[in-house]
Amino acid sequence: MNTIQSVLRSRPSGSKRRSLGAFVASLVLAVPTALLASAAPAAAAQTPTCGSGYVCIYKGDIFDGGSHHPVVYRFYRYGTYNVANLIGDYTVKNCQTGGAGVQGLTGYNGTGSVAWNLNVNNCSTGLWTSLTSTNSVRVYA
């Protein structure tokens, strides 16, 4: 016995039509509500912020008016870090405090020549540049 039959059999015979009508009406009302709830627009993707004390490297120009530029690297501690696949233009934000800097180097493990250097906090502006030649990043005091 299915659910509708069990509902109808548990009621007095005179109310079968009303019960079936109420059951169908509840389904008709519930389905559009469920569809409307699932059709809510997704939140727009936004470029994440770079917190105080961090160096962040974003794909693309974060000030171009676009809504989403992912963070590809985020550094907090002093040291040298190898990076990979930085082909094309990126935005580098130095949000460190106390005069700390960051530089991109052409070789791995901090070797090679300096490709770019941010020795000031540029958290509000960022540096938009090609990082194709960058193979390591040094965060320094």
Structural summary, described in words:
This is Peptidase inhibitor family I36. Residues 1-44 form the signal peptide. The protein is of the alpha+beta class. It has 2 helices and 8 strands; from the N terminus they run ααββββββββ. The strands form 2 sheets. A 4-stranded antiparallel beta sheet has the order 2-1-4-7, with no helix packed on it. A hairpin with an 8-residue loop joins β5 (101-105) and β6. α1 packs antiparallel against α2 (16-38). It starts with a helix and ends with a strand. Mean pLDDT is 80; it is low at 3-13 and 27-43.
Main features:
141 residues, alpha+beta, Gamma-B Crystallin, domain 1, 2 domains, 4-stranded antiparallel sheet, signal, Peptidase inhibitor family I36
Explain the layout of strands and helices.
Elements: H1 3-9, H2 16-38, E1 55-59, E2 71-75, E3 79-82, E4 89-94, E5 101-105, E6 114-118, E7 127-130, E8 136-140
Antiparallel strand pairs: 1-2, 1-4, 3-8, 4-7, 5-6, 5-8
